[in-house]
Write a structure and sequence with these properties.
Layout (H helix, E strand, L loop, with lengths): L23 H25 L3 H10 L7 H30 L1
């Protein structure tokens, strides 16, 4: 059984049906999870004494982050909220301009 296919040109404007839109909720949720995981790693690294420069920077940039258990969890929540809000706004603006 053989199938014939027509080669498509990458620059052919008729090859794509429309403009791609981002799923704002999915992108924002993924950013929130990644932000929380990174903050968890920095909390663990800070408790161990590794990457102290990055841990100090996160302590300056985030209000609730400290290399303790409570500070790490608070930093994870803060990073997740900030990451969600920023990426949701980015996806919303992208979709608004892509129309």
């Amino acid at each position: 059984m053989s199938t014939t296919t027509r080669p498509t040109n990458a620059y052919d404007t008729n090859a794509t049906a429309g403009v791609m839109h981002l799923d704002a909720l999915a992108l924002a949720s993924a950013a929130a999870v990644v932000s929380a995981v990174v903050m968890l790693f920095l909390g663990v690294f800070g408790a161990v004494g590794v990457y102290e420069g990055a841990v100090e920077a996160m302590e300056q940039w985030h209000l609730f982050f400290e290399p303790t258990v409570v500070g790490t969890v608070a930093g994870m929540v803060e990073a997740a909220v900030i990451g969600f809000a920023v990426m949701y706004a980015f996806a919303w603006l992208y979709n608004a301009f892509a129309r």
